[in-house]
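call fold(seq) -> C-alpha cells
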Amino acid sequence: MSDILGYARVSTDGQNLDRQIDALMAAGVSKKHLYFEKMTGTKSDRPELNRLIDDLETDDIVVIADLTRISRSTKDLLEIADKIKNKGAYIKSLKDTWLDTTSNNPYNVFLLTVMSDLSQLERDLISQRTKEGLVSAKARGRNGGRPSKQNEKSEMVMALYDSSMKIADIVRNTELSRRTVNRIVRNHSDKAETITA
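ret:
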C-alpha cells in the first residue's frame, strides 16, 4: 500500500513551519510521514530530505507545499525528481500544480523541465533586480562600508520595495516574516520623513 509523505523546509530557526505542515496534512500527509528541517536550501546535504528519499517505496507520493521548499535550482529539482522516480515514487507540489508526476502523462516531464527553468529564470531576475536596487540604494547614500547582517536584510528588503515589488513577494523571496518586512519598510519611511522635514 502506498503512502503519502510530506516534506517541509524553512531556511532559519526563526522561521515557522506551521503553514507548510498544515497544508501538507490537509493534503493527506499523516504526522508519522512528515519530514521537515530548518536549514538553507543552498546546502546540498539536507538530512531529512535524504531520509525521506531513502524511506520511499514503490508508488509512494512525496508532497511539498511548493517547489522552492525542496529545490534550490533547476538542476537540483531535476536531480531530486529523478531520485524519487528511481524509487518508483512520485512528487506533487500543492502550489505549483504543474509539478505532479502521479499521472502517467508524458507532458509532466516536459512541464517539469520547462517550468523549473522558468522558476530559475524568475529567481535570476529577482537576484538581478536586488543587485540593481542595492546599487541604487548605495548611490542614494543608504549603504556605507560592509553592512551588518541586519543591515543586509534591511537593504535587500528596501531594494526590492524600491523596485515596486509587492510585500507578499518580498516576504516569499527574502524568507523573512511579513511583520519583519513591514517593520523595515515602516522604519525606512519614518527616517525619510525625518530627513525631509
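The first helix runs from residue 18 to 26.
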